[in-house]
Amino acid sequence: MRPFAVSAISLLLASIAVPVSAQDREVPYWATLRSEEVNMRVGPSEAFPIEWVYQREGLPVKVIRLREGWRLVEDPDGERGWIVARLLNPKRGAIVVGNGLADIRASGDSDAKLLWKVEPGNVGSLGDCDSGWCRIDIAGHKGWIREDRLWGDGEP
């Protein structure tokens, strides 16, 4: 083979390996579901039965174990199972939890302007958290929510 061909093949193989290695992080860590439909299995292969079918892109999960392209995850209800790594996004997300409507404010302060209220179960992209408040984007609506009203923030 010519040196150029060898270099091109090496570069191609390196670029393919990057996404796989990007998911090989120290556990536990947070991730979100990458697709509208994601199967959670009882074991780390397609040979194992499906335990749950999630139909919620962006739902946060806690990754607690890695195994050959599969991730053992825990969902917001505490259920555990295996999801193929390519269906997980390392982007942080959160789900609103607790009782009653949660306030979304203009800044991370109880006295900040109230922008709207959100029901538990809504999911969004999680931004920075500071002093008990987290920046959140729910379907393009951005604001700050109390950290204790979220699952998917903080140390996993």
UniProtKB/TrEMBL annotation:
Signal peptide stretch: 1-22
Keywords per UniProt: Signal
Domain of life: Bacteria
Keyword Signal in record: yes
Pfam families: SH3_4
Name the UniProt record assigns to this protein: SH3b domain-containing protein
InterPro entries: DUF1058
Gene3D superfamilies: SH3 Domains
